[in-house]
């Protein structure tokens, strides 16, 4: 009884288990069918889609093929853009960069190709290629099923996807798709496309396309370009070791690039040589020797790479072009250059003026280097930068970051050199004083050595002793004259009187600094800021001066109008910035008026207008010379154009004892402004409509002229912000008038223009 019960129980259990198993089987079966159907439908869908797109993709292959054929038949000279003529054969439409008038300033041609015929490809390369990529290339119909199965098992053994089993034809198919994302769809496409290509092209033609189109990293497409880039030789001359290296790059150009990762490059190179021996192209015993010889002979440093890359890039305005490149990498990404043949980039630059400025800077630097006491081996580190901007639009017309753009030296000093600005900052002290009605352009100060105690400053800055450049003093000067002669001691006294906070605010607002940046770069207790004890880039200083030239309003400078992709779609456009008022029109005008004096006889750049034919142009300027003449500056403004030039030694060495901003930097801008007159209509600073009061003033006292005593020293065109005009009569004696007049004239002959 008991036994039977147990038996029944067991039977029941097994029936249950069987039932469960059956259930499982059925659901497994159904799921599989569903998955299979979905997969089948998907593949069907992809195949249908493929049939729609097939024509386009095969057409692309035919275009490639025809171009390669045509280009390899005859050498054609690549259109000469700027630099030297290169007999480059090019099929890719370049990305073109235009200046503000639609003139081409350069082209990005990262994929410019040298096409070659098969007979000009080293056999070594082809052997290495077949060994590793497709050893049955001549025997399959586009797909190597054996290789796929082999790769599948190898991958299982290694527990990772190490081999794809893709044939050369499949890899070529991959190149033909414009979208390069990884997906099942693409895999199916590759498969179908390979079949199609094999139907339409001979094996030789497929190979011809492949060797000319495959990517080897660092912008090099095709074996000839890769050979030039990695070994600086033609692909015909590749030996076994070199061929193996190029082939080692195909599966992952950056991972195995010797320029990027020497260890993995070496390992992969060795593996390729081993594989070549396995297949029988070389002897097993030679592998180590070839490997060793190769790495003894070849060194890969990035500098060489960039030098060699130069063969695929030419342009007129290297600094501007490099800045455009950086801009795009930053805003859009590096891939822009790979996927946008025929794109157009519209910039604000002025090609003619840019080219002219570079020439001018070069010849100017030449004489400065000759005058320099540095040894000739340091000459190239005496450098300069120029930037010119349209103040009311913010368009940067000229941007020169040095005297020669080379692969070793791509520093764009316009943005990257932050240097002592010296006297070039004084106008911003005065503009703040005038804006806040603490000073007027005619306030008189004593021009003599001063020591100023700065309360609350750290010990180091507590007692501030100020002298003039070369200890030249002129007795008494008004502020207009102080800017003309660039008096340090008067700027210091004004800074003491007004404080530097107003000036700091104006500067940081104009440049858009955060409060942290402002506090680090311009600490408040430091009155010496008024004398330019602060580092700025030429771009920053230029921006400050555009604010004055634009009558107190800042418009954000920019250099790219828009970027248009090959289909004509605008993918980037600079939004017009809303002008931001920093100081009143009145204050800006008064400072511009004061700065005119710098370019008049006796001023620190007083020799410029007559020597450069600029007498009839309304120009204002300011020189700058930092401590020990380490940095020399010149800024020149007109309502139409604002220019800034800096010259100095790259590592901040002293390069001259005598060359000042007025002597060494001003001529560059003078020549460029003269050139600009050919195409720009210069404006003039005007006070029409401004609330300024015109009132005669005695220039020796800054007061209302007293009849008789002041007659010789009256400025009848003095202008004041309403309410700041002087009310008292000049109280200086006749004798004091004469004394002051004589004292300032004593220095007149020895102008040096600092
Ligand atoms: Zn007087």
Going by helix content, strand content and strand pairing, the class is: alpha+beta
**CATH fold node name of the largest domain:** Beta-lactamase
The name of the CATH superfamily of the largest domain reads: DD-peptidase/beta-lactamase superfamily
Number of strands: 23
Q: Give the CATH class of the largest domain.
A: Alpha Beta
How does the major sheet shape up? 6 strands, mixed
Specify the number of helices.
26
Average of pLDDT: 87
CA radius of gyration: 37 Å
Protein described:
There is one protein chain. By secondary structure, this protein is an alpha+beta fold. The protein has two domains: 1-74 and 110-316, Biosynthetic peptidoglycan transglycosylase-like (Penicillin binding protein transpeptidase fold), CATH 1.10.3810.10; 359-676, DD-peptidase/beta-lactamase superfamily (Beta-lactamase, 3-Layer(aba) Sandwich). The protein has 26 helices and 23 strands. A six-stranded mixed sheet has the order 3-2-1-4-14-15, covered by helices on one side. Helix 16 packs parallel to helix 19 and helix 16 crosses helix 23 (585-596). The radius of gyration is 37 Å and the shape is elongated. The termini are far apart. The relative contact order is 0.08. The model is unreliable at 74-91 (pLDDT under 50). It binds zinc ion (ZN). Zinc ion binds at residues 698, 700-701, 705, 709-710, 713, 730, 732, 737.
Indicate the topology.
Elements: H1 2-73, E1 95-98, E2 104-108, H2 123-133, H3 145-158, H4 168-176, H5 184-200, H6 203-213, H7 223-231, H8 240-249, H9 262-279, H10 287-297, H11 302-309, E3 314-315, H12 318-331, H13 336-339, E4 344-347, H14 351-371, E5 382-389, E6 396-400, H15 413-416, E7 419-420, H16 426-435, E8 444-447, E9 450-453, H17 459-462, E10 463-466, E11 475-478, H18 479-485, H19 488-498, H20 501-511, H21 515-521, E12 535-536, H22 538-549, E13 553-554, E14 560-564, E15 570-573, E16 580-581, H23 585-596, H24 608-611, E17 620-625, E18 631-637, E19 642-649, H25 661-676, E20 692-694, E21 697-698, E22 714-715, E23 719-721, H26 734-745
Helix pairs in contact: 1-5, 1-6, 2-8, 2-9, 4-5, 4-6, 8-9, 9-10, 14-25, 16-19, 16-20, 16-23, 18-23
The structure holds zinc ion.
Zinc ion binds at residues 698, 700-701, 705, 709-710, 713, 730, 732, 737.
